[in-house]
Amino acid sequence: MNKFLPLALSAALLVACESKTATTGEANTATSAETIQTDSLNPATAATSGAAATAEAEANATPAPDPSSIPAGKAGDAAAILARPQVPILCYHQIRDWRAKDSKNAKDYIIPIATFKAQMKMLADSGYHTVLPDQLYAYLTTGAKLPSKPVMLTFDDTDLDQFTIARPELEKYGYKAVYFVMTVSLGRPNYMTKPMVKQLSDEGNIIGSHTWDHHNVKKYQGQDWVTQIEKPTKTLEEITGKKINYFAYPFGLWNPQAFPELKKRGFVAAFSLAEKRDQQDPLFTIRRIIASGYWSPRTLHNNMVQSF
Ligand SMILES: [Zn+2]
């Protein structure tokens, strides 16, 4: 059954996410072109060498308190969480050059290498600092301070090019990221291996859970929670030697019934896609946008500004 899984997954992913990119994507291209110009051309924020680079690296992904040290009342205060400005969070999948057989829709999920590099350079030149989920959690629940111009970079589905292409690119800027791993793919051709995931974790990135084989959370019953959530999360904890606190919904799809199930299994927050947050439980519907392969750095920036 698993033999055909990667293909089925890509197809399902594309169908499920199509409508979401449409709402956050190309429609916005022409609206705020001036923002990016002022930011990226500012020489004061463009320095990335010597002492400046060290300071930049320190500002990126500063350690934050463990979420378990934050009182439950803070995490339960939905109104306070919703009132805080959202941090832009970008979601990436494959990073590789387009092939002739890639469909039009697939190209939202496949970002050409040069486009990805240009997007990262834009973020760095514009003075963005990457933040990690513990920092975001402390900010959302207690108002803890974040570095200036925070952005979170997230990579879903365990694709190998996240290690071979994205990792060295992020390293140039001292950037850290979140990798939401679907454990069924570990070690398969074109996917990351367990030692790669371990290395990403050891290097200060965060590993999150993204189910066993990418089934829709809204359809889970009984044993599905064990198969899709408990076992794969335990696998990730064994690989990294760290507790896994964060979850990303396959296809960005969620329902409120999932929240207690995730909480029961130790998660403190979960990430969706561009849809509106749940008004009672915003920590379990933290929004992200898919950074499309069609987006120039300027389009990406426009979407970051407008969507969050
Ligand atoms: Zn996924």
Question: What can you see in these coordinates?
Answer:
The protein is α/β, with parallel strands linked by helices and 308 residues long. The protein has a single domain (73-307), classed as TIM Barrel (Alpha-Beta Barrel). The protein is 43% helix and 11% strand. Strands 1, 4, 5, 6, 7 and 10 form a 6-stranded parallel beta sheet that branches. Helix 8 (133-142) links the parallel strand 4 (129-130) and strand 5. Helix 2 (33-40) packs across helix 13 (297-307). It starts with a helix and ends with a helix. Bound molecules: zinc ion (ZN). The site of zinc ion has 5 residues, from loops.
Question: Any chance you could write out the topology, listing elements then pairs?
Answer:
Blueprint (H helix, E strand, L loop, with lengths): L4 H20 L8 H8 L2 H4 L3 H10 L12 H4 L2 H6 L5 E4 L1 E2 L14 E2 L1 H13 L3 E2 L2 H10 L7 E7 L4 H12 L5 E4 L12 H9 L3 E4 L14 H17 L5 E3 L9 H7 L4 E3 L17 E2 L6 H11 L1
Parallel strand pairs: 1-5, 1-10, 2-3, 4-5, 5-6, 6-7, 8-9
The structure holds zinc ion.
Salient structural properties:
two-stranded parallel ribbon, TIM Barrel, 10 strands, 308 residues, alpha/beta, six-stranded parallel β-sheet, binds zinc ion
H/E order of the elements?
HHHHHHEEEHEHEHEHEHEHEEH
Shape: globular
CATH superfamily: Glycoside hydrolase/deacetylase
What small molecules does the structure contain?
A: zinc ion
C-alpha Rg (nearest Å): 18 Å
Q: In terms of per-residue confidence, which ranges show pLDDT below 50 for 5 or more consecutive residues?
A: 1-48
Number of strands: 10
Strand content: 5-15%
* Mean pLDDT level: 86
> How many distinct folded domains?
1
CATH architecture: Alpha-Beta Barrel
Instruction: Calculate the terminal CA-CA distance, rounded to whole Å.
Output: 40 Å
Tally of separate helices: 13
Give the fraction of residues assigned to helices. 40-55%
The level 1 CATH classification is Alpha Beta
By CATH, the topology is TIM Barrel
Main structural class:
alpha/beta
Biggest β-sheet strands, sense, barrel: 6 strands, parallel
